[in-house]
Specification:
The structure is a homodimer. In chain A, 40% of the residues lie in helices and 18% in strands. The first copy, chain A, is α/β, with parallel strands linked by helices. β2 of chain A pairs antiparallel with β2 of chain B, so a sheet runs across the interface. The first copy, chain A, binds a DNA duplex through α2 and α4.
DNA sequence: TTGTATGCGTTATCAT
DNA sequence: ATGATAACGCATACAA
């Protein structure tokens, strides 16, 4: 079944009574004699010919793939990012080669080295481990992680974001703050959020704590931490800044279980600004990262040939958005 | 910059003092003389040679791409699906060619016809429009949509899901139910959820209503509908079944704005079972679709050569899970 | 302007 | 078992 072999330019050429080269010209929009044009087009239609991009890519040494490396697609920040990248790549007639690493260093390395075998126009990546071998001679942009010198990193101004969060909480009347984060101990963007937060608190003379937990066994450790700070139904903190929206959401659930109400007893700000369920509303008050603009910049950098801007890194501005877990 | 041209088998062959064919054999694990083996391996290492999959695919007429067509990646059901598909494809050494259609019929058609130009091993798709031209001679599986005769459709047992939802609400004490949905009026899986729901209600003699709204201007219409059914702070319904978890989430917010408490005043069950924020917990009580198993089945069907099962469609079982918006 | 012929990097079919 | 060579489908330099 399905034995019909692929129609090639040769077939079209034979059908139209012209040379293969002429067919190629027609397909590629290169001017050709009026009558040739028509007979070739007719033959293409009759045979239902379609060009073979595999062969085209090999011969012309040009392809239309861009590799996107992400840890996963269930984290809403990653999936939002992937969605925006997909839209942007489509706008540029590029196919998105999606590689998920699950945070596995070996898989990350394999994905990063894929272009050595599979020609692509560039790599857009967000990896967890930073000691990766990087392929040469191919445009790479990294999101949120400093991969190495000469590799542009697109991120948001997370220091200001942390500062903004602390400021907002304090303006909302909070007197005792805490910063909560989960994740790798490798230096990354989250540190800056903490830095900006800490600076704002210190500057204003407001007391604060921080709590970091390893990826796994997530919420239980946070619950222990919070319960340890609960005295007579009253929490030591009245303002929490969570390193991600995901975490903010979990913390909120923990607080509800502890019979604390949000935002009356405790105000929460999450970081990231992704909307759960693609809804119109944010599901917690949040510092919003400009995901769309970040994706756009990534694609522009990868596809532009001019290496001018390619050596810089970029910090895009963030802003605060109300989402129900703060007074305003 | 970057002028170093690609290392090919020829280069390796020259370096090792053997014929290109021998290099190919070594690369492909075909037995070769001991000494040849070693010299070729040494040359490969020295030159840092990597095979060109583009050429390999052209020549051998085999590639390792699978196209995945989805409307977007911000809807958590789609992104969860994409995540599972990605994991499964990696397990089978396949690359995921991700195409997002935004529900645009033209883009959907273009994506569907991509394999005519870009050779792939198969297509896994979830499209919104059903009158699409389908490419021949290539494995296709559809998720949730009946694309046409002979094209296998992977879905979950949504009729039972609807039945289950109604039953659960009634068991929890609800006396007056409503089914809420948004989306296209094209016949699809959502109809079955409604069908099963209706059957269960009728069977038990419990009154019910249904409300369908077009994709856009979402929540406002639902809010109008619910407010029209609000009398003296009391809603006509005490149990709501929402066609998606996304919708359930929005409805919950509307109810909260109306000063109704969930699940005390109104119980809600959403459909789909995706977890917002990849958390361990469901964010509403829900009928869970076996996304992981669906993805696994899709990939297995696409990659298996035996056409035995390929003509069937599959309905995977669903189950209920508590998520806080019902009594239990 | 159009046809001819070569090569992209690989695999497979031949002889050797 | 290995080397030479053709072919996959296309693009292009060159000749006509």
């Amino acid at each position: 079944m399905g034995g019909s072999k692929r129609i090639t330019m040769k077939d079209v050429a034979r059908e139209a009574g012209v040379a293969p080269g002429t067919v190629s010209r027609v397909v590629n929009g290169i001017p050709v004699g009026k009558s040739y044009q028509r007979s070739v087009e007719k033959a293409i239609e009759k045979l239902d010919y379609h060009i073979n991009r595999q062969a085209q890519a090999l011969r012309s040494n040009q392809n239309n793939f861009v590799e996107v490396i992400l840890p996963n697609l269930y984290n809403p920040f990653y999936s939002t990012l992937a969605d925006c990248l997909g839209r942007e790549l489509t706008r540029h007639s590029q196919q998105m080669l999606m590689c998920l690493t699950r945070g596995d260093p070996d898989l990350e390395q394999a994905c990063m080295l894929l272009p050595q075998q599979q020609p692509v126009n560039g790599v857009i990546c967000l990896t967890d481990h930073s000691d990766l071998r990087i392929p040469n001679d191919i445009p790479i942009v990294s999101i949120d992680r400093l991969l190495g010198p000469g590799i542009p990193c697109i991120t948001s101004d997370d220091y200001s974001g942390g500062y903004l969060a602390a400021q907002k909480l304090m303006n909302n009347g909070c007197k005792s703050l805490a910063f909560l984060r989960a994740g790798s101990s490798l230096p990354n963007e989250t540190d800056k959020r903490w830095g900006g937060f800490m600076y704002a608190c210190t500057d204003a003379g407001v007391s604060f704590e921080s709590m970091c937990v390893h990826e796994d066994a997530f919420s239980s450790e946070f619950e222990d931490f919070l319960r340890a700070h609960l005295h007579d139904g009253h929490l030591d903190f009245d303002g929490l800044f969570c390193a991600t929206v995901l975490l903010a959401h979990q913390i909120r659930n923990i607080l509800l279980r502890m019979k604390l109400s949000v935002p009356q007893d405790v105000q929460i700000i999450g970081y990231g600004g992704v909307k759960c369920f693609s809804g119109q509303e944010f599901c917690c008050s949040t510092i919003v990262r400009p995901v769309e603009e970040m994706a756009q910049l990534c694609v522009d950098l990868i596809l532009q040939t001019s290496p001018k801007l390619f050596s810089c890194s970029f910090q895009l501005p963030v802003y605060y958005a109300f989402g129900g877990t703060t007074n305003q």
